[in-house]
């Protein structure tokens, strides 16, 4: 049985009262809920049950998915805690916006934001941990997002590059993780009031940098997976008092409880925050606040931005690190390798945008000059790699091309699909030759290369093989 820390029980009995606290403690001892979202950027049929929709989240359902199924490897579904789906749903994002997911790994919220943008505008998805940033990139790649920049940086480094830049910023902040008690033994093991206070200080540090990157009148979505007021209503109150943010109403479900003004600065608008308690039946614990910046927000940073741009313009003269366009010969190799595939409408002009960096060919989502000094894992769509007198298309491109109907496809049965995931080459019956898309149950998940004798060479990435 889950052992809840005594100090935690005392704290929330004091905050909630004995009856409500008892409901919370009982819920924390129940099994956690699993759910998944369907990727509307892609076409395909999901074999999982859709009998129990997650209330308030379009195309989301309760149920468990497998990382070995074609639905997962093709990026048609994403497994996510149902309550954790609400931050990306609550932030006002439209196609064409500039959006930042500041603490983005493993990528559940980033994939949802990329889906909202529908290939227009730009999504910067950042993660400070290198190992978690790699997972973030893999999830966005599988989801088929073409306009994302995946960065591995701290918030201060980003704010120096992007003052007053974003229309919307999502900060799902590192927290004490009280909402994860029934999913993670470590969350219980490391819980203490001292850690709650430490997390609150860290959240202010991160948000201080986030505010610098938000446009006047922009939206800031702040969320945690914890219950403590020190990390929730008190942080929102600090944003209101320090920076003049307004707390906007959130269209959530009937199961979401309102924020508690008495746990913050007393402002009635704190009721606009949404609290998801385990006993409410949606999912794990989640706190969500949608804030709007004042119209004069970040004017203090305008001079910083102007000064930085002027300095970089002068410094950038005669730079030896400029990216190149592929040569005419290289463009021929690229065209030959990927001829015959249908492209999403958002990438119709890719030939005029393509750049090359150390033989990597890509369509950038942001001008690489804007990203100088930041560790970049991915900028837009990686088309593939130039090799000696040939071109090898990327796994990301396969996942993107899976968004539209294709003719150059080899569809595998269940047995061959499992073999392909293991990294085996296959013998198939097909009249095609050269690079083809590989699918199972009609869901594209990889590239392969067919010889004239029907030998399908395996191009599924080694790091993803099962």
Automatic annotation (TrEMBL):
<keyword id="KW-0963">Cytoplasm</keyword>
<feature type="compositionally biased region" description="Basic residues">
    <location>
        <begin position="305"/>
        <end position="320"/>
    </location>
</feature>
<dbReference type="Pfam" id="PF17126">
    <property type="entry name" value="RsmF_methylt_CI"/>
</dbReference>
<dbReference type="InterPro" id="IPR027391">
    <property type="entry name" value="Nol1_Nop2_Fmu_2"/>
</dbReference>
<dbReference type="Pfam" id="PF01189">
    <property type="entry name" value="Methyltr_RsmB-F"/>
</dbReference>
<keyword id="KW-0949">S-adenosyl-L-methionine</keyword>
<dbReference type="GO" id="GO:0008168">
    <property type="term" value="F:methyltransferase activity"/>
</dbReference>
<keyword id="KW-0808">Transferase</keyword>
<keyword id="KW-0694">RNA-binding</keyword>
<feature type="active site" description="Nucleophile">
    <location>
        <position position="225"/>
    </location>
</feature>
<dbReference type="InterPro" id="IPR018314">
    <property type="entry name" value="RsmB/NOL1/NOP2-like_CS"/>
</dbReference>
<feature type="region of interest" description="Disordered">
    <location>
        <begin position="304"/>
        <end position="327"/>
    </location>
</feature>
<feature type="binding site">
    <location>
        <begin position="103"/>
        <end position="109"/>
    </location>
    <ligand>
        <name>S-adenosyl-L-methionine</name>
    </ligand>
</feature>
<protein>
    <submittedName>
        <fullName>RNA methyltransferase</fullName>
    </submittedName>
</protein>
<dbReference type="InterPro" id="IPR049560">
    <property type="entry name" value="MeTrfase_RsmB-F_NOP2_cat"/>
</dbReference>
<feature type="binding site">
    <location>
        <position position="154"/>
    </location>
    <ligand>
        <name>S-adenosyl-L-methionine</name>
    </ligand>
</feature>
<dbReference type="Pfam" id="PF13636">
    <property type="entry name" value="Methyltranf_PUA"/>
</dbReference>
<dbReference type="InterPro" id="IPR023267">
    <property type="entry name" value="RCMT"/>
</dbReference>
<dbReference type="Pfam" id="PF17125">
    <property type="entry name" value="Methyltr_RsmF_N"/>
</dbReference>
<dbReference type="InterPro" id="IPR031341">
    <property type="entry name" value="Methyltr_RsmF_N"/>
</dbReference>
<dbReference type="GO" id="GO:0032259">
    <property type="term" value="P:methylation"/>
</dbReference>
<dbReference type="InterPro" id="IPR001678">
    <property type="entry name" value="MeTrfase_RsmB-F_NOP2_dom"/>
</dbReference>
<feature type="binding site">
    <location>
        <position position="172"/>
    </location>
    <ligand>
        <name>S-adenosyl-L-methionine</name>
    </ligand>
</feature>
<keyword id="KW-0489">Methyltransferase</keyword>
<comment type="similarity">
    <text>Belongs to the class I-like SAM-binding methyltransferase superfamily. RsmB/NOP family.</text>
</comment>
<dbReference type="InterPro" id="IPR031340">
    <property type="entry name" value="RsmF_methylt_CI"/>
</dbReference>
<feature type="binding site">
    <location>
        <position position="127"/>
    </location>
    <ligand>
        <name>S-adenosyl-L-methionine</name>
    </ligand>
</feature>
<dbReference type="InterPro" id="IPR029063">
    <property type="entry name" value="SAM-dependent_MTases_sf"/>
</dbReference>
<feature type="domain" description="SAM-dependent MTase RsmB/NOP-type">
    <location>
        <begin position="12"/>
        <end position="294"/>
    </location>
</feature>
């Amino acid at each position: 049985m889950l052992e809840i820390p005594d100090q935690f029980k005392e704290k929330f009995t004091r905050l909630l009262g004995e009856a409500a606290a008892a409901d919370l403690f009982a819920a924390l001892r129940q099994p956690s809920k699993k759910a998944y979202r369907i990727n509307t950027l892609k076409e395909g049929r999901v074999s999982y049950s859709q009998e129990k929709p997650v209330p308030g989240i379009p195309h989301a359902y309760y149920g468990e998915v497998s990382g070995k199924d074609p639905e997962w490897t093709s990026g048609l579904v994403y497994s996510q805690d149902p309550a954790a789906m609400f931050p990306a749903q609550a932030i006002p994002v439209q196609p064409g916006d500039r959006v930042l997911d500041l603490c983005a790994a493993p990528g559940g919220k980033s994939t949802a934001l990329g889906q909202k943008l529908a290939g227009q505008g730009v999504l910067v998805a950042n993660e400070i941990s290198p190992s978690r940033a790699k997972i973030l990139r893999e999830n966005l790649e599988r989801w088929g997002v073409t306009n994302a920049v995946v960065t591995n940086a701290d918030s201060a480094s980003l704010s120096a590059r992007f003052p007053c830049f974003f229309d919307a910023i999502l900060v799902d902040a590192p927290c004490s993780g009280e909402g994860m008690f029934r999913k993670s033994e470590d969350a219980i093991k490391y819980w203490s009031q001292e850690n709650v206070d430490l997390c609150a200080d860290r959240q202010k540090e991160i948000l201080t940098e986030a505010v610098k990157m938000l446009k006047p009148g922009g939206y800031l979505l702040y969320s945690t997976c914890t219950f403590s007021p020190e990390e929730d209503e008190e942080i929102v109150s600090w944003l209101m008092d320090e920076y003049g943010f307004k707390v906007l109403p959130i269209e959530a479900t009937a199961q979401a409880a309102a924020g508690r003004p008495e746990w913050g600065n007393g402002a009635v608008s704190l009721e606009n925050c949404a609290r998801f308690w385990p006993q409410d039946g949606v999912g794990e614990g989640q706190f969500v606040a949608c804030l709007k910046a004042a119209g004069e927000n970040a004017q203090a940073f305008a001079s910083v931005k102007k000064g930085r741009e002027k300095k970089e313009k002068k410094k950038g003269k005669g730079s030896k690190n400029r990216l190149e366009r592929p040569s005419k010969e290289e463009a021929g190799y690229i065209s030959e390798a990927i001829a015959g595939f249908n492209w999403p409408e958002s990438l119709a002009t890719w030939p005029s945008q393509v750049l090359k960096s150390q033989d990597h060919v890509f369509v950038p989502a942001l001008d690489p000059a804007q990203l100088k000094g930041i560790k970049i894992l991915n900028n837009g769509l990686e088309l593939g790699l130039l090799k000696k007198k040939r071109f090898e298309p990327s796994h990301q491109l396969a996942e993107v091309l899976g968004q539209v109907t294709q003719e150059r496809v080899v569809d595998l049965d269940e047995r061959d699909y499992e073999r392909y995931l293991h990294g085996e080459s296959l013998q198939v019956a097909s009249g095609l030759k050269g690079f083809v898309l590989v699918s199972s149950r009609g869901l594209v998940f990889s590239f392969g290369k067919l010889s004239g004798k029907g030998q399908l060479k395996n191009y599924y990435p080694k790091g993803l093989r099962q």
